[in-house]
Write the structure tokens for this entry.
Amino acid sequence: MLQRILKAQQSMDSACNALGRQINIMEVCGTHTVSIFRNGIRPTLSKKLKLLSGPGCPVCVTDQAYIDTCIELSQNPDCIITTYGDMIRVPGKGGSLETQQSSRNIKVVLSAEDALDFAKQNPEKTIVFVAVGFETTTPATAVVIKEAAEQNIKNFTVLCNHKRVVPAMKTLLAEKNHKIDAFLCPGHVSVIIGSDAYKPIVDEFKRPCVVGGFEPMQIIESLAEICRQLEEQNPQVKSLYSAAVTSQGNLKAQKLIDEIFTPCDGYWRGLGKITTGTLKIKDQYSDFDTAVRFGIEEKSNEDVTGCRCGEVLCGLIDPQDCGLFATGCTPQSPVGPCMVSSEGACSAWYKYGRKRAAR
């Protein structure tokens, strides 16, 4: 193990020295961000190697308007909102779902299947499932929509906000942050889409894309591989998470996604409207589309609270550069979604980064 660590460190140090400048590597996935902090990886890296936390948390990248729509729907006495736990604490313009929970119809569920079961148990109400997530959780939502159609569960609807990671990575490089030198690609998403999905980024932007696992050694060796490619000026797609990720991904899951959803342009927090960056429910399943059922039009609302989560998600600033961090915005009283989610960059910096800085 020690020899592997030393070898990886040599690769990273060699690249930093060869390039003669700071190397900026973005870890796209929130799970990577948390693992890097929890295992104390950042302090071991060269000062010329900077890790940027990216838009890898689905709760964090959810646009403000979507949160406001959820809260508005919760005011409808005929609806029950079903959602994962992290989502209820994300602030909207008029509070959060959590602050409305005592007086409105909101239920936390553990899975999309739980939401569908709840609809079966409450046929007199319209059940709205708050579907937030990347390609990792999209198949589960597709399954329940298909089940609802087959079983004719007419009181079940999905407010779809599933996102596609690769279009967001392209937008980052093209419009938001050209200083990103490479990507540590998300392990969980890559299980579904496959490592070959990142080839357009390498071909178009000449940036290394390395898929890594979540254990400390897996992360360190992935960073070393990225540095090796940068030093050799030979950007490639490479997976160092072969135990879970193949080049083609999960073809069965991809087929199911394609059956139920179609790519569309959609808003991401901090990144704006991304071409084909979101999924919408296909017309043949529109009976289960909350937006169609209630005539909800897409819109984008900019956050005016002073929260800088959008810049954090683009790797433009570190969480501690936001004036609200650890003062006006804490896990107990969050202003932005990056402090709410367990995989949010601000939450990770607050929980781990401040302690290490103090030491």
Summary: Residues 309-358 form one domain. Residues 2-19 form the longest helix (18 residues). The mean pLDDT is 89. Residues 312 and 318 are 6 Å apart (CA to CA).
